[in-house]
Amino acid sequence: MQSLADEIDALLPQTQCTRCGYAGCRPYAEAIARGETEINHCPPGGAATIAALARLTGRAPLPLDPANGVEGPHQVAVIDEGRCIGCAKCLPSCPVDAIIGAPRFLHTVVAALCTGCELCVAPCPVDCIVMKPASAVPDAPSAAPPAELNRRRFYAHRERTERRARERAAQLAARKLAARTPAPSGIRA
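The structure assignment produced for this chain is given below.
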């Protein structure tokens, strides 16, 4: 049986943009379910999501809170490839891995996967990432990716990021232990 938070989360667009003030769609859904926040803090979902949340929760529909942003057409990130320095600072910030690249190499956005969250813009040290309406970007779909795809990609991104952090911590711990362990007598380090 689904919890109220599960039902609320299913109605959210899963852009993981954090504009609601929470670390993603699921934490926002949980806060709504606990009655800790209003249902009108999701700009990507806009009026349609607010209406659906109102029906589900029995709360009055409210206008989108302008402190969280404005409702608008689907946007996608675009990297100016001539200015990209390959720093890779945008890669970890994308919650759905819509940016492809590697350190010291050119990066690009897979427009069909971009949720329009804008989280990649701030980390770019050379300001080569801009948000554009999807209608102005060749090969970009006019609508945002389906919420379920966004959710799956977000959880895969998070799991991979957490696994890498655990692996790095284990490597560091092993190196520290090796550095403290004296070499057997007769063997030079």
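Interim note for the steering committee: Residues 147-180 form the longest helix (34 residues). The mean pLDDT is 93.
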